């Protein structure tokens, strides 16, 4: 039985960085890790990969012939991989004896909640190589700073989980940046409430002055809170 992770998520959500960090962490705790790059457009890999789909097909080639755009090209590459799954299976066979596998996938989310190729070839590999996989879906924590984006991220995760039919874990990535987004601040809450009950329209000039005061108070409070944290 072989264990591994299917790392997916929107473009730029941090999949490659995650695979790199996760493989280092797992190696440190004594697991033998192999990273499989399945992104045919992943040019600058920060990790050493055991298998690279670019040996089979490259996005830049299919953008020349059959002259597809980046999105269509990626769908084509995944369909091509599905048709040539024997290639991947042969590459994985020697690894699955003693490795933990990390699959680094492309960022086009439709490949995981609409198209069937990725799901189909993973299902074949699961059966033929006796894999135990979990989907790890990365979501940029920036999406938590806006209710609409947050809900669409949840819906995306739900659709992907239902489509892939695998154990599924959502990971908020880039959490180190969360402090730089406008979250839950009382100032933001007041602005939202003012818009909702119409206060903001009662005296436009007055509210501009008021909002500049809110910004100053918020900055002072944040500094005060940070100073308190440092003292603790
Ligand atoms: N601050 C911060 N930056 C990160 C983190 N993870 C990734 N990044 C940055 O985000 C950018 C995209 O990261 P990648 O790992 O290439 O993301 P990806 O999901 O593999 O990207 P695609 O393959 O293009 O879909 C890079 O500039 C990374 O350095 C993180 O945890 N914190």
Automatic annotation (TrEMBL):
Q: Does the keyword Nucleotide-binding apply?
A: yes
One Gene Ontology cellular component: cytoplasm
Record's keyword terms, sorted = GTP-binding, Hydrolase, Nucleotide-binding
Q: Which InterPro entries match?
A: Gpn, Gpn2, P-loop_NTPase
**Molecular functions (GO terms):** GTP binding; GTPase activity
Judging by the UniProt lineage, the source's domain of life is: Eukaryota
**A Pfam family recorded for this sequence:** ATP_bind_1
Return the PANTHER family for the record. GPN-LOOP GTPASE 2, XPA-BINDING PROTEIN 1-RELATED
Question: What do we know about how this protein assembles, alone or with others?
Answer: Binds to RNA polymerase II (RNAPII).
The job of this chain, per UniProt, is described as: Small GTPase required for proper localization of RNA polymerase II and III (RNAPII and RNAPIII). May act at an RNAP assembly step prior to nuclear import.
The similarity comment for this entry is: Belongs to the GPN-loop GTPase family.
Q: What is this protein called?
A: GPN-loop GTPase 2
Q: Which organism is it from?
A: Thlaspi arvense
């Amino acid at each position: 039985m072989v264990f591994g992770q299917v790392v997916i998520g929107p473009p730029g959500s941090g999949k490659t960085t995650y695979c790199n960090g996760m493989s280092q962490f797992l190696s440190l705790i004594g697991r033998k890790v192999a990273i499989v790059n399945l992104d045919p457009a992943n040019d600058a890999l920060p990790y050493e990969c055991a298998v690279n789909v670019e040996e089979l097909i490259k996005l830049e080639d299919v953008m020349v012939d059959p002259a597809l755009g980046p999105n269509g090209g990626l769908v084509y590459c995944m369909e091509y991989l599905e048709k040539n799954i024997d290639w991947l299976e042969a590459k994985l066979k020697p690894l699955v004896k003693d490795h933990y596998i990390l699959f680094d996938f492309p960022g086009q989310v439709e490949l995981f909640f609409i198209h069937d190729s990725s799901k189909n070839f993973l299902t074949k590999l699961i059966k033929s190589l006796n894999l135990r996989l979990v989907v790890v879906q990365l979501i940029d924590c920036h999406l938590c700073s806006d209710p609409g984006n947050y809900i669409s991220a949840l819906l995306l995760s739900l659709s992907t989980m239902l489509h892939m039919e695998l154990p599924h874990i959502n990971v908020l990535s880039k959490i180190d940046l969360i402090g730089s987004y406008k979250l839950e601040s009382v100032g933001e809450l007041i602005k939202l409430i003012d818009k909702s009950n119409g206060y903001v329209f009662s005296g436009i000039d007055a509210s501009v002055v008021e909002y500049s005061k809110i910004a100053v108070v918020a900055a002072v409070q944040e500094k005060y809170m940070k100073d308190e944290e440092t003292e603790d």
